[in-house]
Write a structure and sequence with these properties.
- Keywords: Membrane, Transmembrane, Transmembrane helix.
- The chain is built from 2 helices and no strands.
- The protein is elongated and about 45 Å long.
- Helix 1 crosses helix 2.
- It has 54 residues and is mainly α.
- The protein has one domain.
Amino acid sequence: MRKTFLVILIILNMMVLTGQVWPDGAPPFARVVNIVFLSLSLLYFLSSFMGKRR
């Protein structure tokens, strides 16, 4: 489960990075991808942080 989640985050990260490096090539849904990536990253980091504290 965690590995699948990381693969999804990596793919979204690559899309976000491509949009930042080459803005003309960004797809029309780039804003949604950015928001989803940031939200999922935050959830992942919070769950990792909380898991290590227990």
